[in-house]
Amino acid sequence: QVQLVESGGGLVKPGGSLRLSCEASGFTFSDYYLSWIRLAPRKGLEWISYITSSSYTEYADSVKGRFTSSRDNAKNSLYLQMNSLRDEDTGIYYCARHMITSRAADYWGPGTLVTVSS
Amino acid sequence: QSVLTQPPSASGTPGQRVTISCSGSSSNIGSNTVNWYQLLPGTAPKLLIYTNNQRPSGVPDRFSGSKSGTSASLAISGLQSEDEADYYCAAWDDRLNGVVFGGGTKLTVL
Q1: What distance in Å separates the CA atoms of residue A39 and residue A74, rounded to the nearest whole number?
Q2: Helices and strands: H and E segment counts in chain B
Q3: What's the distance, CA B16 to chain centroid?
Q4: What is the pLDDT of residues A50-86, one digit of tens each?
Q5: Under an 8 A CB cutoff, do B90 and A35 touch?
Q6: Which of A104, B36, B71, B75 would disulfide-bridge B49, Cβ 3.0–4.6 Å?
């Protein structure tokens, strides 16, 4: 069955860095576009970035220049390098798989919590 | 301030039909399909409706979606207590070149 599992979250001070990972299984990883989406306290869901099968990326304005998404198809893994972290980056970070025929995210991981606080 | 606009709350009694609206613009809902997600406390978001009105396998037919112009709606008929959750609409935005979400609607089953 399709599984996505995030890791790498934790507590970091403002200005610090974190690298999130998402390990996938149960499907042909290289065929699918993937996204990072976060759920911030009292703010709802926010799309962060997506990456195509060939590693073309797009980012939300709120993280552009600070976050970098990458993938390793040989390791069935997705990554999010987060630099210059701010208080407002606090939240649960999910990786999600997009359907091949639609931009809908049909499978999500359980998420990893990132807390940015001094 | 989300790009897509949803009511912050909705409510209904068991068995009732409720609808949740989602309003956007020509760059998102007006030119792309709409998806709906259900977020239960402590769980990952679940895809409920994709491509405006399609249900993934396993989603009950009590859930339905529609789209007209720059607006979309999610309808839940035969409301059940386990439907109490947060619901989000989402669409691709051609101007922002990314996915935009609504602010979410908290559904309470009275």
Answers
A1: 29
A2: 0, 9
A3: 17
A4: 999 999 999 999 999 999 999 999 999 999 999 999 9
A5: no
A6: B36
